[in-house]
TrEMBL record:
PANTHER family reported for this sequence: NA(+)_H(+) EXCHANGE REGULATORY COFACTOR-LIKE PROTEIN NRFL-1 (PTHR14191:SF3), PDZ DOMAIN CONTAINING PROTEIN (PTHR14191)
Domain of life of the organism encoding this protein: Eukaryota
Keywords in alphabetical order: Repeat
Organism: Rotaria socialis
Domain PDZ: 13-87
Protein name: PDZ domain-containing protein
GO molecular function: protein-membrane adaptor activity
Length: 156
């Protein structure tokens, strides 16, 4: 469970995330743009959005959610999303366990775009060489598909 605090950056348009437009509740993050406030603030693809600035999203439409985020952006140039990854949410629901929003880990994006975000080459293919340490069982990331069929994404 995370509280992701995002800020508008002068040299970036928006917060850099997309929420499903389907009537799925709770709403789910379907895209997090690289080098965005959302990426710096800890949002991940397949996060359920449980609250926006402490207002529950349990019964809101997509249009209402978008309005909540835009209102927060226009009022404070920031927004705080209470999120939980889809897998953990489903596990908690399965065993009928509640979660306490007060115990959420706070992840705060920087208030201005970091210099390495500004200089990172945009839309450039790159190759990453990864080595798995003998004591490790995984590389520490997962690959997820997009609901829009635009490809695969590395998550976390």
């Amino acid at each position: 469970l995370r509280r992701c605090r995002l800020y508008i950056w002068r040299n970036y348009n928006g917060f850099g995330f997309t929420v499903t437009s389907e009537s799925q509740l709770p709403p789910i993050i379907t895209c997090v743009e690289s080098n965005s406030p959302a990426a710096a603030g800890g949002l991940n693809i397949q996060d359920y959005v449980l609250a926006v600035n402490d207002t529950s999203t349990a019964d809101v439409s997509h249009a209402e959610l978008v309005a909540m985020v835009k209102n927060a952006r226009d009022t404070d140039a920031s927004v705080e999303l209470l999120v939980l990854h889809q897998d953990f949410y489903r596990e908690l629901k399965k065993v009928n366990r509640l979660f306490d929003p007060k115990r959420a880990k706070i992840i705060e994006a920087p208030r201005i775009m970091p210099i390495n975000y500004q200089t990172f080459p945009k839309h450039q293919p790159r190759t990453c060489l990864l080595r798995l340490a003998k004591k490790e069982k995984s590389f520490g990331f997962s690959i997820v598909g997009s609901s829009t069929s635009t490809g695969l994404y590395i998550d976390e």
